[in-house]
Design a protein that fits this description.
Blueprint (H helix, E strand, L loop, with lengths): L14 E6 L6 H14 L4 E5 L5 H11 L7 H25 L3 E5 L2 H11 L4 H12 L6 E6 L2 H14 L14 H17 L4 E5 L5 H16 L30
Helix pairs in contact: 1-8, 2-3, 3-5, 4-5, 4-7
This protein binds adenosine-5'-triphosphate and magnesium ion (MG).
Length: 253
């Protein structure tokens, strides 16, 4: 691992962070918040997701998630890996070569947890296929957002209703409770086997802001981000947008 992000006297190096976890654990929500927070430090961030982080991947995503498609298990494994291979080559690698911080909403561990543990496949085989897809590009840090299975699925249903989404749950979300429980257990097994790469936040009892605080704490520690010393020059009532300062006149925090 070779992390060298220092904000005070800007030292940068490519950093690859993935967000993982069961359905409704808050990955997409936290990915956006984390990207915003890092950008406020003036750091270059690329936020992307799987499946569907490329034009080709969007087509694969449609095939993978369309409820009426009857995919064989190995077809699902291979399409996920194909999406990933394209994403790595076209998006992730170039961004890392440009010294960006890449935040990816789902990556290899999703395949291991969902297609491996969830669909009761040989996890080692799924891993081998995915290693071919990523060519050794493992994340520096994987934030595992854990959630109690029912709570995660409820959040999802609520969100769909709130947004008036008529299409309902996708092909993978529609799987039964036992599948989603195995996914959750699978993620826990994965993090136990690689505690150096993973950091876990249990989001079951936490609101979005509390999870964001925990995520930020972990990322700052792992990336060694230290607050730059900036004196806020704005008067009361004025908002300051200098780097991370959004103090609205109350001084940089
Ligand atoms: N800690 C939380 N507490 C309550 N609700 C949350 C929390 N985090 C996210 N949510 C809400 O739950 C819903 C699902 O969150 P989000 O889409 O971020 O999850 P996800 O992990 O990306 O899900 P998926 O695996 O389906 O992509 C959203 O409506 C979001 O606002
Ligand atoms: Mg999501």
């Amino acid at each position: 691992m070779n992390l060298r992000v220092r904000v005070g006297r800007t030292v940068m190096a490519a950093v690859f962070i993935t967000l993982e976890g069961p359905d409704g654990s808050g990955k997409s929500t936290q990915a956006v918040l984390l990207a915003e927070r890092l950008r406020r430090f003036g750091l270059p961030v690329l936020l992307t997701r799987e499946p569907g982080g490329t034009a080709l991947g969007l087509t694969l995503r449609q095939i993978l998630l369309e409820p009426s498609n009857k995919l064989a298990v190995m077809t699902e494994v291979l399409l996920m890996a194909a999406d990933r291979a394209q994403h790595v080559e076209e998006v992730i690698k170039p961004a890392l070569q440009n010294n960006m911080i890449v935040i990816c909403d789902r990556y290899v561990d999703s395949s291991l947890a969902y297609q491996g543990f969830g669909l009761l496949q040989d996890v080692a085989k799924v891993k081998t296929i995915n290693e071919a897809a990523i060519g050794g590009l493992w994340p520096h840090l994987t934030l595992l957002l854990d959630v109690e299975t029912e709570t995660g699925l409820q959040r999802h249903t609520l969100a769909s209703r709130r947004q008036g989404r008529s299409e309902g749950l996708d092909r993978i979300e529609q799987r039964d409770l036992e599948f989603h429980r195995r996914v959750r257990q699978g993620y826990n097994r994965l993090q136990e086997s690689d505690p150096q790469r993973f950091a876990v936040v249990d989001t079951t009892e936490l609101g979005v802001d509390d999870v964001a605080q925990k995520v930020w704490h972990i990322v700052r520690q792992r990336l060694e981000i230290s607050e730059p010393e900036i004196t806020c020059t704005k008067k009361e009532g004025e908002s300051c947008e200098v780097n991370h300062c959004r103090s609205a006149g109350s001084g940089c925090k």
